[in-house]
Amino acid sequence: MKADAAEVLAAEKRKSDPATTNERIWREVVSWFWVIVAFLLIEGTMVQARVIPSGSMEDTVLIGDHLIVSRLGYDAGIPFTSWHVPLWRNPKRQQIIVFSAPLPEEGNPDFIKRCIGVPGDHIKIVAGQVFVNGAHLIEPYVKHNPGFADSPVENYPPANISALGMGVTTEWMEDFQNHVVNGEIVVPAGEYFMMGDNRDNSRDSRFWGFAPRANIIGTPLIIYMSIDAPDPEEVWGPGFAFQRFEAYASVFIHPGRVRWKRLFHTL
After folding, report:
1. Cα separation, 234 vs 7, whole angstroms
2. 208 with 85: CB under 8 angstroms?
3. Contact 79, 89 (CB under 8 A)
4. Given 3-state DSSP classes, what are the helix, strand and coil percentages for the chain, each rounded to the nearest 5?
5. CATH superfamily, domain at 47-220
6. H or E element: which one contains 77?
7. What is the pLDDT of residues 7-30, one digit of tens each?
8. Distance (Å, whole) CA 51 – CA 241
9. Which of 2, 29, 187, 230 has the fewest CB atoms in 10 Å of its CB?
């Protein structure tokens, strides 16, 4: 009993000892430091989580799909900053890619599209059918609106880019004709031509031009969550943090809003 009492007193003394307290604080600081370093390493060079805010890639990915995106080999950077460096891997034709859209006036938002053209490719779209270097591109993933078969977005490049309407950027208006050769768009070196799978509801390279290699972030791997929220574009878009929290909380009351069959679906 005396020994037990002595141990208790010794323990109490250690707790009250400033040196021991400082050691515990220092160990805690070091532990959190390595947690933060690990997070920055993973987020900056390996994987990121993204949520789909628009329907431009339906039915491949849906509004409210939550994705794990692999940056491995494509891009490395410091999270929450604009600093990053391209790595050794390059997008392949028909691969789904996450990238920063070359839209500086809109804050260069992150887009998810499919890579249709790589450097040197000659691209032409006729009645919705894509031809790359003269060969018909087989695209079982594409969603078309039959009513748009004769529109400029489904017959590209048009004679006049302004025919696409208000979505065309001023820069592409001015630069478009420089990349048209014999009625085909020619993808320049270090650039990629991106299109959404939902061809008639996608603001993509047809409207703003090419995605530079430096803007490539990575490629999606898996859908880890998918929620069919009310007013989805006002939930999953940027700047709707409260609505997003409500959507997550609502699944406990309405579990049917989770698209269970899409969970852990690979891309």
Report:
1. 61
2. no
3. no
4. 35, 25, 40
5. Umud Fragment, subunit A (2.10.109.10)
6. strand 75-77
7. 545 555 555 555 566 777 767 666
8. 13
9. 2
